[in-house]
Amino acid sequence: MKIVADANIPFVRECFSSIGEVEVVGGREITAGVVADADVVLVRSITPVNAELLGGSKVRFVATATIGFDHVDVDYLKGNNIGFASAPGSNANSAAEYVIAGLLEIGQKYGIELEGKSIGIIGVGNVGGRVAKKCAALGMAVRLNDPPLQRRSGDAKYLPIEELFDCDLITLHTPLTFEGEDKTYHLADEKFFGSLREGCVFVNASRGAVVDSGALKSAISAGTLGAVVLDVWEGEPNIDMELLGVVDIGTPHIAGYSLDGKIAGMIMIYRAACEHFGLEASYKVEDFLPEPVVCELRVNPNAEREQDVLRGSVRRIYDIRRDDLRLRGILDKRADKAGEFFDNLRKQYPVRREFQNTRVVLDSPCASVGRKLAGIGFKVES
Predict the structure, then answer these.
(1) Could you tell me the CATH number of the domain that includes residue 153?
(2) How much is the pTM?
(3) How many domains does the chain have?
(4) E strands within the chain?
(5) Does 14 have pLDDT greater than 80?
(6) Do both 49 and 126 map to the same domain?
(7) Looking at the annotation, which residues are catalytic?
């Protein structure tokens, strides 16, 4: 069995070699010619999977090692009896930790105390749900908007989007959809930004096209927004340089790029492939996860303001400022080289581990700091 896999899926060769011959190529190099004689195609978000890619091939199974699958024509796969799997939830914790890291940095930059602030979360799936829990642990007032979930559950906690517009912060965690009553393409448009509370902090770690880039730039220019954190961009990898120049934190679509999340996603699609072909799975997540670089943090909860203690702890594990700095290197590139630079930041992304791998030891008892560190994912001892 021949397997063509995106080179940005860690350990994909080592794992999938147990069920077939693996050819590893760059995500944008997965073309119709490359997959023509493949049985299995494994992608991430940058490879469109459709009739143009698979027409005339012998592919019997496709998987994406990502939460979202708007880059996959699922109807085409069904119509051609091609198996499909994604990795829902695999990198959700990583993306949620990204949001927390971003909010703590914005809090430091502008003197914003997160505790007591209201945050509107648009899209409450695997990522949004985790963001909600972590923000609540920080003492924030959380408001949720998710029309499909509201219709399915009837739960009154899912509010109309208009009831989020006066929040102090807004973060987007929706899939990208182009039609239907829950269409999210350009959900954040001129009207959206015009409805927000003045000084609102805006975060997008979902999909770039959920936001109208022109409307966002206008809102920033008008001083409507207090701060902006963007991980995703319209037109990736050829992103809007002008927009990057005016956001507070900009990163190259890596919110979900923790090693934990990547390996979890790889194992999810590996097990799905094994099931599809009636094979026994040989590996599990633990077979590929190394020991974390930072196993333990000793924290003096009384050394600084509480939020500074939290931010300092987070920085030791994930310093979002480094990802921002790396991406800003694109501003020095020629226009015809910018897309390649963006892609390489993702391909060569450094190892990042999740908070759950690190034990925090408090030098003195502090229930509040301990509770908040545990609430955002650390293992806490006092």
Answers:
(1) 3.40.50.720
(2) 0.92
(3) 3
(4) 2-6, 21-25, 40-43, 61-64, 83-85, 118-122, 141-145, 169-172, 200-204, 225-230, 249-250, 296-299, 359-362, 379-381
(5) yes
(6) no
(7) 207, 236, 253
